[in-house]
Amino acid sequence: MQSRPVLPASQLRLDQGHLTGFNFPTCDLANSGAFCNQFVHPHTAVPVQLSVCIARRSMVVKIDRFYILCGFVWIVAAMAFGFYIGAAEQLQYSNTHAHAALVGFVLSILFGLIYRAWPRLLECRLAPLQFGLYQLGTVVLIAGKYSIDGGNSAMLAVIGATITIVATALMGWLFVFHSEDG
Q: 81 near 40, Cβ under 8 Å?
């Protein structure tokens, strides 16, 4: 049995739901958003197996990666902040440091891995909203924790916590109702 060449994702271009330069004899990406792994290159007539998951929106395909990248940004920021508060002996901000590491890093990585493990979640139109809400809520929550730890108002923390809770509940809803083929 002959193996088909794998076309790198860098050579693909999505143009209004269709991959430019390829014939799709068995599926219609524009209507179904389905993933097909057998394509014929029009110039060489060679069957090609794609090594990329295709969905209707390119943003949706990358949410898992965006979450994991955001997680690494959060942990670097939390570590740098932890270094600063330790060096400056401003230990009253340790709760802010912990929240940035746990809510920012741990949950962002976890959500990214959930999206990666259950790719059907990426097809849901609410996935980009869930990602945006969670990251926004986390930023506002961390700013609010910084304000509280500095002896100021808790208003930002309340707003950020509310947004983060709604986004986390939305993630749970997506998982329960969109993670299995149905």
A: no
3-state secondary structure the chain: CCCCCEECHHHCCEECCEECCCECCCCCHHHHCCCCCCEECCCCCCEEEECCCCCCCHHHHCHHHHHHHHHHHHHHHHHHHHHHHHHCCCHHHHHHHHHHHHHHHHHHHHHHHHHHHCHHHHHCCCHHHHHHHHHHHHHHHHHHHHHHHCCCCCHHHHHHHHHHHHHHHHHHHHHHHHCCCC
| Dihedral, CA of residue 110, residue 115, residue 118 and residue 120, to nearest 10 | 160
Query: C-alpha dihedral over 128, 134, 137, 142, to 10 degrees?
Result: -140
The Cα–Cα gap between 42 and 137 comes to 47
User: CA–CA distance from 16 to each of 19, 20, 175 (Å)?
Assistant: 8, 9, 28
Q: What are 41-73's pLDDT values in tens digits?
A: 555 555 544 333 334 445 445 899 999 999 999
Residue predicted with more confidence, 23 or 173: 173
